[in-house]
Amino acid sequence: MAEQVSDRISRLLALVPWLAKRPGITLTQTAQHFGISVETLTKDLWQLVLCGLPGYGPDQLVDIDFWDDDRIWVQDPQTLAVPMRISSDEAIALSIALRRMNQIPGVAEKDTINKLIVKMDSVTGSSMSVFKVSSADQVAQSELIESALSNERSLSFDYSSSTDSHSRRNVTPIRVFGVDDYLYLAAWCEQAEAVRSFRFDRIANVDVIEPLIHGQADLMTELTGLTDLDSAPTALIRIDSEIAWVTEEAWVRHSSKDFGELEDGQILITVPYLSKEWLICWVMSMAGAATVLEPIAFAEEISELVEGSMVRLVDSN
Questions:
Q1: Cα separation of 54 and 309, whole Å?
Q2: Domain spans in the chain, listed from the N-terminal domain onward
Q3: Can you give the pTM of this predicted structure?
Q4: What is the pLDDT of residues 257-270, one digit of tens each?
């Protein structure tokens, strides 16, 4: 069975400090200790000598000598000289994040999350009960939404929209998702007779009610979590042929807009977005194969980010 990436990473992190305390130990002894073959150990060591700090020059890489006489000598462990240990501040941050995650309705493996919280608390030596990551009202609201999702019930709540209009909504919850720092409930809305997304911090006075009778939810809206694909803001983007697969995404549309001559294989698409930050990250993740044409302000910001990255790269060299 193929080795899990997480298992190999854990072993790589443990190897360097272990070897640093045992200069001259043989490949065979080391392989036996970690329960792997000499061949696998050799691959790990070659992987390690290619690891280091940004800049990645010879003096910034882990230096291990192991190819001369079957013995291993750690010449420069960089920042891995001692076993990795989580600090108290890191444990607190993780514990808070885990507690917040544990309150998100619909999150699976909550037993596992609780076990991790106990482990984080053992690092700090306290139960951390002083930290309140959510108010009592938020916790109660999340529990009601969780109950509706688990028991296939519907919800009724007061909602304040982004335009500051207030209404009472009856909805059938579909799922919970996050965008930037906000949680949203995707649900079929009885009043709109369509799938809508509701931001958690704008929901109040939640009640669990009997299941609503409604038609089939719009699949594309349900998958993306976007409130309405027709009314959501969109960006005009030119993509190269190597990422033509993105046009298969339910939330992507081909564009017939005339925006100059396209090179072979290039396609114009429109992409809906909930935030500028998300769109910029999505475009930059395409490694130059996607170009924002409109809004022009987004295109200029991406250009500045790319130029800044190139300058830092040149300076580091």
A1: 13
A2: 5-76, 88-124, 153-224, 234-316
A3: 0.41
A4: 887 778 878 889 98
